[in-house]
Design goal:
With 421 residues, the protein is of the alpha+beta class. It contains four helices and 22 strands. It has helices spanning 3-43, 121-155, 162-194, 243-252; strands at 60-66, 68-90, 96-101, 108-109, 114-118, 197-199, 204-206, 216-217, 224-239, 258-262, 274-279, 289-296, 308-325, 330-332, 335-341, 347-351, 353-358, 362-367, 374-378, 389-392, 402-403, 416-417. The strands form five sheets. A six-stranded antiparallel barrel has the order 2-9-12-11-10-13. Helix 2 (121-155) runs antiparallel to helix 3 (162-194). The radius of gyration is 48 Å and the shape is elongated. Residues 28-55 and 404-421 have low confidence and may be disordered. Belongs to the membrane fusion protein (MFP) (TC 8.A.1) family.
């Protein structure tokens, strides 16, 4: 036998022996696994299948709070716009070269402050001319009066004709009228001269200026806009359904309805409380709303013109309203309800009618509950009508249940906590 065939025969023998050994080694493992599957199937321990004793009659820990009677203010809410009390665009009343600007943009200015100066030389000259003309005519009037007096004494002696006296008298009257006209001309020239000093007509905040010193301005040139923000207005709309309630309260409350302005997040008031000032005299047919205007002192300038704010208008106060935490109210297919604690420490589903919000965390209930009733505020997600509960005091957090995954109840850490309701 050649060397080639000896090597080939050796390789074949090795492969056959290896295959037999592999088969013998793995057969017991497969049989063991098969036997385990059959045993599991016979015992009926399929994953996730509930056991025969899965019912749990342990009371559910929940937090309960009693209803409380208190005086509840009723508010109407809206989105309002802050508007300035006065908004004035300053234009020169005479033309000329702008010499100086005496304010800084964004600066508070007072009524009567000189905020700009126009070249006054031309107007000063006109004023001086008017004053000189008045003095000239006053001198002529004095001469005419003296001549009239002197000639009246000579009429009796026959030295002056009576006809000339009438001429002297008419001349005096004419000069008197001329002096009066001169006085008016002086006042007019003085007004024009004063207009070269541009004065703030209001207390306000200066905006961005529109011209620079050195420019020639006219009466149509806007220099700056002044905005009065102390006090300040807030204008807001309400639906027409609220008109009757607002008007009744506005007329019967001596025009002192309280208005609160809140920031866009409803987190805190922006200013001291304002008062309702005006209810508009018409309803907008396109939106079905009417406008109202409130006035605020705005001492800290927290309200700024053009700002959007949330507005709360208090129209009345309910005496002895039933108040519960807002989180106690649940939404169901038939409306709002709460879980009410029964004397036997079970809960019942109690329909309620929510009349309005009380602050940020409570609501007023107009129907369905009585004073002192206990309602569930935490843990509702584990309840159903008739559930046995363990009532906890307000502030105590009910323990969260541990849910088993159904695979290995004996292993620690296989359960997981459910989210709190």
């Amino acid at each position: 036998m050649s060397r080639f065939w000896k090597i080939a025969l050796t390789v074949i023998v090795v492969l056959v022996v290896g295959g037999v050994a592999f088969r013998l080694l793995h057969k017991p493992a497969e049989e063991g696994a098969g036997g385990h599957h059959k045993e599991s199937a016979q015992n009926g321990d399929a994953p996730g299948k509930p056991g025969a004793n899965g019912q749990d009659n342990t009371p559910v820990p929940v937090t309960v709070e009693p209803t409380v009677k208190q005086n509840v203010p009723v508010y109407l809410t809206a989105l309002g716009t802050v508007t300035a009390l006065n908004n004035v665009t300053i234009n020169p009343q005479v033309g000329g070269q702008l010499w100086a600007i005496n304010f800084k943009e964004g600066q508070d200015v007072k009524k009567g402050d000189v905020i700009a100066q126009i070249d006054p030389r031309t107007y000063q000259a006109a004023y001086d001319q008017a004053v000189a003309k008045q003095k000239q005519d006053e001198a002529s009037l004095a001469t005419a009066i003296s001549t009239l007096d002197r000639n009246q004494k000579l009429v009796a002696s026959g030295y002056v004709a009576a006809l000339n006296i009438d001429t002297y008298r008419n001349n005096v009257n004419q000069l008197k009228a001329t002096v009066v006209a001169d006085e008016a001309s002086v006042r007019s020239a003085k007004v024009q001269l004063d207009f070269t000093k541009i004065v703030s007509p209001i207390d306000g905040v200066a905006g961005i200026r529109q011209v620079d010193p050195g420019n020639v301005v006219t009466t149509s040139t806007a220099i700056v806009t002044l905005t009065q923000i102390h006090p300040i207005y807030i204008v807001f709309p309400l639906p027409e359904q609220s008109l009757e309630a607002v008007r009744d309260s506005f007329q019967n409350g001596s025009n002192k309805l309280e208005v609160i302005a809140l920031d866009r997040a409803d987190a805190h008031p922006l200013d001291t409380t304002g008062t309702l000032q005006v209810v508009d005299n018409l309803i907008d047919t396109s939106t079905g709303t009417f406008k109202l205007r409130a006035i605020f002192n705005n001492p800290s300038s927290a309200l700024w013109p053009g700002q959007f704010v949330n507005v709360r208008l208090r129209v009345r106060t309910v005496a002895g309203g039933l108040v519960i935490p807002a989180q106690a109210v649940q939404r169901g297919p038939d409306g709002d309800f709460v879980y009410k604690l029964q004397p036997d420490q079970t809960v019942a589903m109690q329909p309620v009618a929510v009349a309005g919000e009380v602050g940020e965390s409570h609501v007023m209930v107009s129907n369905g509950l009585n004073d002192g009733d206990q309602v569930v505020t935490e843990g509702q997600f584990r309840l159903k009508p008739g559930s046995k509960v363990k009532a906890l005091k307000p502030g105590e957090v009910p323990p969260l249940p541990v849910a088993s995954d159904g695979k290995d109840k004996g292993k620690k850490g296989d359960g997981h906590r459910a989210s709190a309701g």
